[in-house]
Design a protein that fits this description.
CATH class: Alpha Beta
Largest sheet: 5 strands, mixed
Number of domains: 1
Structural class: alpha+beta
Order of helices and strands: EHEEEEHEEEE
Mean pLDDT: 91
Helix content: 10-25%
CATH superfamily: 2,3-Dihydroxybiphenyl 1,2-Dioxygenase, domain 1
Number of strands: 9
CATH topology: 2,3-Dihydroxybiphenyl 1,2-Dioxygenase, domain 1
CATH architecture: Roll
Number of helices: 2
Strand content: 25-35%
Distance between the termini: 22 Å
């Protein structure tokens, strides 16, 4: 299992987005500033910026954590075009249009806080993720 932490601006909105749009499971939500979700072998930990402690607290030099950036995890999908259409109808924001690379087609989706998620549809067998649940 791999764990990724995303800083989000609103835990409730983030939980709804990941569970309703990308098939994540809510594992726990013990505090207003924290939730843990999972999807296959991916654990997604969500934290809001929180000066009181935890994963969202400022780093030692005083810099406050914020959503965004370009590092991302990828979710393999079976029909990228249909998924993008469905997400757009639901009001989702994308950073780009679908592009085709050597191993597949991809697009960068943003969660409600602006964190990137790559949606990836392999076009060659070697690019397919093994035993990975796919979103349709």
């Amino acid at each position: 299992m791999v764990q990724v932490r995303y800083i989000v601006t609103d835990i409730e909105v983030a939980i709804a987005f990941y569970t309703q749009q990308l098939d994540f499971h809510l594992d726990m939500h013990p505090a207003p500033a924290f939730a843990m979700l999972s999807r296959g072998d991916l654990r997604l930990v969500l934290s809001v910026p929180d000066p009181a402690g935890g994963g969202g607290q400022p780093i030692p030099d005083g810099t406050h954590q914020a959503p965004g950036g370009w590092n991302r995890f990828a979710i393999q999908v079976s029909d990228l075009v249909s998924m993008v259409q469905r997400l757009r109808k639901a009001g989702a924001h994308f950073r780009n249009e679908i592009v085709t690379g050597v191993g597949g087609k991809q697009i960068i989706l943003e969660d409600p806080s602006g964190n990137p998620i790559e949606l990836f549809e392999p076009i060659i067998v070697e690019a397919r993720l093994p035993s990975n649940p796919q979103v349709n």
